Amino acid sequence: MEQRVKTSGSVVDIVNRRIVDASIDLAPDGTIAGICPERSPDRRYILPGFIDAHVHVESSMLTPTAFAQEAVRHGTVAAVTDPHEIANVLGLAGIDFMLAEAARTPFLFATGAPSCVPATPFETAGATLDAKAVARLLDRPAITHLAEMMNVPGVLAGDADVLAKLAAARLHGKPVDGHAPGLRGHDLGRYIEAGVSTDHECLDLEEALEKAARGMHIQLRQGSAARQFEIFLPVLRRFPSLAMFCADDKHPDDLLRGYIDELVRIAVRAGVDLFDVLRAASLNPARHYGLNMGLLQPGDRADWIEVADLKEFRVLRTVIAGQVVADAGETRLPTLAPLALPNRFQRRPVTAEAFRIPARSGLCRVIGVRDGELVTDSRTASPTIRHGQVVADPERDLVKLAVLNRYAPDTPPALALVAGTGLQRGAFTASIAHDSHHVIAAGADDAQLAAAVNAVVAHTGGLATADEQTGVQVLPLPIAGLMGTASCQQTAADYTRLAAIVRGNGCTLRAPFMTLSFLALPVIPALKLTDSGLFDGLRCQHVDLWTD
Description:
Largest sheet: 8 strands, mixed
Helix content: 25-40%
Number of helices: 15
Number of strands: 30
Strand order of the largest sheet: 3-2-1-4-13-14-15-16
Structural class: alpha/beta
Shape: globular
Radius of gyration: 23 Å
Distance between the termini: 65 Å
């Protein structure tokens, strides 16, 4: 990578809310020696690099080094991460893997200590991190915060293990991220008093404004599945010091198209004050998490991006610690093979008979998908029955959903019906199923369900499709069944090919595999499917497939 010693342009000073024509001189240690006024600077704008305030790198299906290669092309220089996806599979070994990979790149991964491993007691987990393990993690300098506290009931009930994790974060002076969809009023106050300082899971604008009014930092999210960023822009207008931008979960095809730069463009086009937008994209998360990031002040580390204008924010160059890491749309970060391929996957193949649902009289509960949202509906329907079995009925937009325990070889799948996918034929499956990451599959045919699941089993993790026309197609994910070893470009191409097959089979979801993965997440209402069966997220309990 090229060492830069001087650059010039219109410097966007977010700290002092001004734009000055100046040159930037670098010190040998990679810090800013001075910012000097200049009458004829280069025709470009220089501003602090963007920061993703909350993301699970594993959801990109990329290793941290491959993720960083693509992120810097879009002007993102740091990400506040929660490795609870791999932690729920591998425990501390998974976190150590992510930290070791992150240390191989100049991109800053501000890694949190996962607070909820297992994520809930309502599914089979691959690992456990108790309060003592979390406290040891928080004692590490590389761990910047306690990651999203999803166990809202545990906080409110005063669960001893939960309170001990929160106390450890306070002891180390590290912030606590939240995850509290729908929490308001008195209980919200108690959640905040426990030390939780952020949230990215607001169900609507009113909830977000209430949380911000109570002092919570609101992370405005635009990921691959959750795409409601613009709805929450009034939070940025009214509480500019409390707003941050985040992706949460980003598939590789979306990452190729844009990252935090995309959110900056959207917000500026919507008429939000430029400096408020840019502080949400850099200053606010840097200060909240205490990141060692430069903000274009003398003495700061030399981190910045150069863009052509302040409307489209096309990134010309990205600089981290004085090193050019992306230039003219191309990454300068090297391609690195992962240090290891850790995994835990004991599932054995299944037959089509495993997906049979014996018929009985009455109505079935049905998971209703909302495209672009993580929240689902809880519906009921009279199932279609043939030869004494409940069958998928694509004409009624009812297909089967299955979750198979990846940590046990032969346990039977949990089965349900799902509406809203539009799937007409075939099946698709993944070993990414938040948060315990069992194998999850949706299909219009039992035989194709088995074929797709068995392809994932054969590769000990991955994404797969199965239908009569294209056969079985697989994207292997050998690292914990969550990440592959290829670049963002190659992973995106493989993912796009599989997603196109699913859409060709009638699926109307914008991000079918991402949406599928969240149908197993019981901490978000209303109805989900875990390896233990249907789960009512509002009543916080398992429910039967049949309503009576």
